[in-house]
Design goal:
single chain, 263 residues, alpha/beta, 8 strands, 44% helix, globular
Length: 263
């Protein structure tokens, strides 16, 4: 891709911030499914106030925002593309920050490639009940009424907890498409919850063995069984509950999330 303005990295649309090369790890920000890099605007404004020179790259995932689509949205392939963007940017091993789907991708990235940390914003790594819901909805998801599935998901994300500017961002900085839902949820539709759980357990074992710090930032107290699983796989995990923030802690309380990223 010819990119005279430097707006793309590894074929992905990206915004670059900061110039700091004092040894602090750069940040790579990954948004959630159907959204784009604009979702990080509130956090970036807060981060600019407390850590103004921190090097940060916010990218649009494949098929989102200004990034081109792909024939496959297999998570392993997407993570490989992300690594290409990090490599082209010339970054030292980054802290990979992801919201929702981005949190899953950040975890897989850190298990496969050099990383200095992971910040997972409200993305459980076990599909659990979500997988059951998606598989049951597959006939609708593949038909003309597919958007009903997405609207049902949105209704469970506590968007009403957000301040109005953040609610507007959730409503407007998004492009739901059938191919994205089927593509990024493809592994959930094809593989069992047990098989996917084993993959994530292996990912966390890699992260643990390499001593990579892992922050899990959530809007509600994690389910006790899930918390036990996560703390068993990653005994040093840091779990931060951001109250009254639902599925979007980075939009409900951007200053709190920025402080976590600036640590």
């Amino acid at each position: 891709m010819v990119d005279p303005d430097g707006r793309y990295l590894g074929g992905l649309a990206a915004d670059r911030h900061g110039t700091d090369d004092d040894g602090r790890p750069p940040l790579v920000l990954l948004h959630g499914l159907t959204y784009d890099r604009r979702q990080w605007g509130p956090v970036l404004r807060e981060l600019a106030a407390i850590d103004p020179d921190r090097r940060v790259i916010a990218v649009d995932l494949p098929g989102h925002g200004d990034s081109p689509g792909r024939e496959s949205y297999d998570t392993g392939e997407v993570v490989e593309v992300l690594h290409g963007a990090v490599t082209e940017a010339g970054l030292d091993p980054p802290i990979v920050v992801g919201h929702s789907l981005g949190g899953m991708l950040a975890t897989i990235y850190a298990a496969r490639y050099p990383a200095r940390g992971v910040v997972n914003v409200d993305q459980p790594l076990l599909v659990g009940a979500f997988g059951t819901v998606v598989r049951r909805a597959e006939p609708v998801l593949r038909g003309p009424q597919w958007q009903q599935v997405w609207e049902t998901m949105l209704a469970r994300m506590d968007i009403d907890l957000l301040p109005e500017p953040a609610r507007e961002l959730v409503r407007t900085a998004t492009t739901p498409r059938q191919d994205l839902l089927l593509g990024y949820w493809g592994e959930v539709l094809v593989h069992s919850a047990e098989a996917l759980g084993e993959e994530r357990t292996r990912d966390l074992a890699q992260i643990r063995s390499r001593g990579i710090p892992y922050d899990y930032v959530v809007g509600n107290e994690p389910d006790p069984a899930y918390r036990r699983w996560l703390e068993s796989a990653l005994p040093d995990v840091t779990i931060t509950v951001v109250p009254e923030s639902g599925h979007f802690p980075h939009l409900a309380r951007p200053a709190e999330v920025a402080r976590i990223l600036a640590r």
